[in-house]
Amino acid sequence: MHEDTKEITELILEAADKARKETSAEPEPTLTRPVDWPTQCTVGPGLEGAIACETKVGYVNGTRGWLIYSGYDIFDLCAHSTFEEVSFLLLHGRLPTDSQLKTFKKKLARYRHIPETKRLLLGFPVEEMNTMAALRLGINLMRQTQTYRDRKEVSFPDIPEPISSDEDSIPMETVPMGEDRAIYEFPRRVYKRPEEVSSDLLGSEEVESCYHLVAGSASIAGTIARVRQGHWPLEPEPELSHAGNLLYMMTGRKPTAEEERIMDVALILHADHGMNASAFAAMVVASTLSDIYFSVGAGVAALNGPLHGGANERALYMLEEIGGPRNVKAWYKKARAQKRKIMGFGHRVYRAYDPRARVLAPLAEHLVGKNKNKKAWPLFRTVQVLENEVISTLGKEKGVFPNVDLYSGIVYSAMGIPPELFTPIFAVSRVSGWTARILEYLKNNRIFRPRAVYVGPFDRKLAER
Length: 465
Ligand code: COA
Known about the structure:
By secondary structure, this protein is mostly helical. It has helices at 6-22, 74-80, 83-92, 98-111, 115-121, 131-147, 198-202, 206-228, 242-251, 257-270, 277-287, 292-303, 311-322, 328-337, 355-370, 376-398, 405-414, 422-442; strands spanning 58-61, 66-69, 72-73.
């Protein structure tokens, strides 16, 4: 165990111990046995309770507050594995051997270089765009370079010579055209649409596309962060981990071993979470035999909403609005009277403390408490008081407990990441889960097609308008 990150592992193990004492890991019979199709289930609005497929990717027991990825408990994965291992696990259903991990890391390092996508992306006003819109755009631009090409030329980019982040030293042919915004001249290619759009997704390179998306989406998030700060996007650093690279490319600063590990754990925690709205959105698009880049773009769009991934950013704004631990009681009373949703609390599936929040809470405290981080420490103190208030009221009455989004913002904030980048970080991690679920579903694909019950009139006449 690395000396600098030993304390983090201990905190995760303590959180795991606490969780195991307060709850128990038990599979729910109806959600953990093979389905005999067609099956019967009780379905609520928003498809609540509907069973759409079988999976080996991951399982959430909401009553117990238990989360597993391909058979491994989330606490064990956080304590003893890395995001790279977890991504491999989700995509292949097993943890990698040493040599598989080495090859996988090499591939991610290669796919982190997305020069053509970056050039295309920088032709848009990224600094003014909603960050999730920019991420979705970037992912669609990755598709442009991968999907529309001659089938005979199927290849993934090699690592180019790294170019310096110092603008003055960039070779002439990549010098920005135009002063206000970086618009590049790049060789025009004639892209050839494959005969069937689906053929790329279902071809031999399908898993490569997933690797490409896992690695490339992080570089897009890094590009967005840098451009918004008015800086030149950075090239990835080959010696850094996925988490380390993400932090470096976003902040321009090499992270400490501790920060790198905490980000690694945060990425593990966000990598998959059942058939939630964004996973479902991505799977619905994939089920039409569209392609995986479009599907992941749909996942990003769904994750953006404040009821889903967008809640982490809103939770931080909410804590800022409260303005300190002493204001919590009055703020909460008013919020409840106004029937406001308290961001970072509640979940469609969990009726217990979200295990991801159990891990992130002590890590947030560790990170911000250590240096009494000026901005994040008062937020942490506020969230602690708020958590007690909510658990003793909404928790008891309605099973509303802290979720993953309550503490992630404090962690990212303490690392110097602005709130508008929180949801893109979530998305970059979740690409692993989305692509894993898509690959699995496509093996027995059936296009998603629920029905709506028509309750409108039948006898309207145009003449009566
Ligand atoms: N604040 C206040 N009340 C909440 C709440 C919250 N964060 N979450 C749920 N409730 C209330 C609901 O209004 C509902 O009340 P009612 O019975 O009087 O109608 C009750 O608790 C049960 O809600 P439930 O059916 O479990 O919620 P849902 O499945 O409709 O919604 C969320 C789930 C996630 C959309 C909801 O909890 C929410 O909006 N949370 C805040 C946003 C957030 O943090 N999202 C991230 C999720 S990871």
